[in-house]
């Protein structure tokens, strides 16, 4: 199991055990993390699972692909560390990953 | 008053489930008319993910969403459904004879014996960008679509977005507006490369201004815009403007259906699982928009729902007529309807 931490907009921490191969979004939904909507169900078609990747993790998580960049155009307050959590796959190297949930989704 | 369009069954929503409803209703000789807010059939399949594969359509190990829509259209073609696109249903009224009158946002009037709501996640509507206080300007100086280009003549216009709508209107309104500033959060665009090249060429000629950034604030009085604040890589800048066109894609909202007097359950329409009828007899709800214990938002569940709904709809459209259950494989009468009888 890989440990992930979601920090909700109000500062609440959600520490979850995630299965490798699942997406960060799926783990947010499974653990009812507030502020992650995932309207489209993970098809990279809606930009409502937007998260900010903690600065310490941006390099390991990597850059969004072109399609994800396109969808990020629809997100709220996009920052250089913005990602769509449905496009981040959980793996060993992400053990301890911290992501923050924005004030709102679009 | 405009001419009334009469049909047996009015289907609200032309997504996969609405389309397949035409098939099941057609087998029972019911004529269908579909209304959709999009400009083409397919609903979310066509609008959100046309090229993505779907893996849980029985018999199709993998099919693209648009491929499914195309095949459904082919499958229902023998029943010659009528379509009205770019319209949102607004009003619904029950008439004395038990049928329904439905009005669209462009005041077309439909009368049908049965109404089937197959509206999925609701109607696609322009997404409001996350700019504080923007609602105060909507309809006066901030618009989400261009109905008449004259609205923009002589105005300092800010267009926000990076897709085809944003780029097309930047190019088309440039000769009409006093000035055009295009704002997009990055220098890459989703729009057609040809439009992007044209835009950059016009920027080169100083015919318009393109700024990388996100609009974070608006200034103005009584809904009349005077400036927009743009947060760019080098900090905030202020751009004078009297009109704004944000293009932030589409979102889904239940819309006026919520006012139809149907019982609702968290923005979904509860139905029974025998007929998929709502709390108002004669109005059915199928696909993602309905709710019942155990509901799954799957296309295949919607297909099942319309088959059962069609039986109940037939009893309303042709009261007293005996309903004979038949298979398309063996029934020559069904095959005649499908145009495949030998």
From TrEMBL, chain A:
<dbReference type="InterPro" id="IPR036010">
    <property type="entry name" value="2Fe-2S_ferredoxin-like_sf"/>
</dbReference>
<dbReference type="InterPro" id="IPR001041">
    <property type="entry name" value="2Fe-2S_ferredoxin-type"/>
</dbReference>
<feature type="domain" description="2Fe-2S ferredoxin-type">
    <location>
        <begin position="2"/>
        <end position="105"/>
    </location>
</feature>
<dbReference type="InterPro" id="IPR018298">
    <property type="entry name" value="Adrenodoxin_Fe-S_BS"/>
</dbReference>
<keyword id="KW-0411">Iron-sulfur</keyword>
<protein>
    <submittedName>
        <fullName>2Fe-2S ferredoxin</fullName>
    </submittedName>
</protein>
<keyword id="KW-0001">2Fe-2S</keyword>
<dbReference type="InterPro" id="IPR001055">
    <property type="entry name" value="Adrenodoxin-like"/>
</dbReference>
<keyword id="KW-0479">Metal-binding</keyword>
<comment type="similarity">
    <text>Belongs to the adrenodoxin/putidaredoxin family.</text>
</comment>
<dbReference type="InterPro" id="IPR012675">
    <property type="entry name" value="Beta-grasp_dom_sf"/>
</dbReference>
<keyword id="KW-0408">Iron</keyword>
<dbReference type="Pfam" id="PF00111">
    <property type="entry name" value="Fer2"/>
</dbReference>
